[in-house]
From TrEMBL:
Membrane-spanning intervals of the chain: none
The encoding gene: hisC
Protein name as annotated: Histidinol-phosphate aminotransferase
Species of origin: [Clostridium] methylpentosum DSM 5476
InterPro entries: Aminotrans_II_pyridoxalP_BS, Aminotransferase_I/II_large, HisP_aminotrans, HistidinolP_aminotransfase, PyrdxlP-dep_Trfase, PyrdxlP-dep_Trfase_major, PyrdxlP-dep_Trfase_small
Modification N6-(pyridoxal phosphate)lysine, positions: K220
Pathway(s) it belongs to: Amino-acid biosynthesis; L-histidine biosynthesis; L-histidine from 5-phospho-alpha-D-ribose 1-diphosphate: step 7/9
Catalysed reaction, written as an equation: L-histidinol phosphate + 2-oxoglutarate = 3-(imidazol-4-yl)-2-oxopropyl phosphate + L-glutamate
């Protein structure tokens, strides 16, 4: 299925009426061959830590006949140690998507609405529809930054991706603290999927704000998108609420091999640092090179760049790159339709992207 083609509108007469109008999330294209340079879904270009490969061995695979630990103790302990919190403050989900879903389910209902920016991770809107919530989408400012005042004392659960996607821009923890202070009776959920690439984590604020939930993922900085692992860090009470959702829905949500893979990845700090530094260095070189070619590149604290060029529409650039076997992500939302989101790959992949871009621009100039 091509990324821009929505799932067909086909439904049975049995589907509950409340789901008839839902517009499901459209994931980025996931070709199952390796014929592309894949810069469209913000995965790491580097393999998981070698310790992951050691942990997920034949012996452990044989144990797949047994259920996994519903308490996910080994991985929860490792995450808690890494962040200096108690294991009872950690909840592990099947990707951070599941953690987000359980959070919307647990903390919002017809009387408890939610708000998030108009341009942000597209899944928030889908969860709001799925759980029949009143969701306010607050416009980002002209420059795509979040206006903090818009979220102060707002009478709703606040959901903010920080750094935001697909813009890559981030708020400081001081700014988020103002949102936390002015919403003591509402949850403030900070989705830190990209925080390891230069953002400031809100985890140190947890002791002071019982309304804060921080959500992170293993999909980006820990090279484990395919293992489907995400987690929340919050007060023990909020974590128990999330557990209530999980144990009422899917108690064995994390499979045996992913528990091992996640534990090994969290444990290998040196490899994590090495991959992260490599990506930050490639990001700054790629940003400079794209600017040289006339692109406007937003300041990124993530493993992607959000870019636009005056001579190329976002859609056109994406299609031209695709013809050259390079996948990037384009969004059709009006405010960002001229932009393209490019994941930071290896230095070699980025060189190929830049060469392809030069060719596309040269042809475009001949046409103008
Ligand atoms: N939050 C944000 C902001 C994201 O971009 C993504 C990745 N698409 C996710 C959450 C979900 O990541 P995962 O389910 O792979 O942990």
């Amino acid at each position: 299925m091509h990324p821009t083609i929505k799932r067909e509108v086909l439904m049975s007469r049995f589907l509950s009426e409340r789901f008839a109008e839902i517009e499901p999330y459209t994931p980025g294209e996931q070709p199952q061959d390796f014929d592309y340079i894949k810069l469209n879904t913000n995965e790491s270009p580097y393999p998981p830590s070698p310790k992951v490969l050691e942990a997920v061995n034949a012996e452990e695979t044989a144990k797949l006949r047994l259920y996994s630990d519903p308490e996910v103790r080994q991985l929860t302990q490792e995450i808690a140690e890494f962040y200096g919190v108690r294991p009872t403050q950690v909840f592990v989900g099947n990707g951070s998507d599941e953690v987000l879903a359980f959070s919307f389910l647990a903390f919002c209902d017809a009387d408890h609405p939610v708000c998030f920016p108009d341009i942000t991770y597209g899944f928030y809107k889908v969860f709001a529809q799925l759980f029949c919530l009143d969701a306010q989408q607050i416009p980002l400012q002209e420059d795509f930054s979040v206006r903090v005042e818009d979220y102060c004392d707002c009478g709703r659960m606040v959901v903010l991706a920080n750094p935001n996607a697909p813009t890559g821009l981030s708020l400081s923890t001081d700014q988020i603290e103002r949102i936390l202070q002015t919403n003591p009776d509402h949850i403030v959920l900070i989705d830190e999927a990209y925080v390891d690439f230069g953002g400031e984590s809100c985890i140190p604020l947890l002791g002071r704000y019982p309304n804060l939930i921080v959500v992170q993922t293993f999909s980006k900085s820990r090279s484990l998108a395919g293992a489907r692992l995400g987690f929340a860090v919050a007060s023990e009470e909020l974590i128990e609420d999330l557990n209530k959702m999980k144990f009422s829905f899917n108690p064995y949500n994390i499979n045996r091999l992913s528990i091992l893979a996640g534990t090994a990845a969290m444990n290998d700090k040196a490899y994590f640092e090495q991959c992260r530094e490599e990506i930050l260095s490639t990001r700054s070189k790629t940003k400079a090179a794209l600017e040289q070619l006339g692109f406007q590149v937003l300041d990124s604290k993530t493993n992607f760049l959000f870019v636009r060029h005056p001579d190329l529409s976002g859609d056109d650039y994406t299609r031209q790159l695709r013809k050259k076997s390079i996948l990037v992500r384009h969004f059709s939302q009006t405010r960002i339709k001229n932009y393209v989101r490019i994941t930071i790959g290896t230095p070699k992949q980025m060189e190929t992207l830049l060469e392809a871009t030069k060719e596309i621009l040269a042809i475009r100039r001949q046409e103008l």
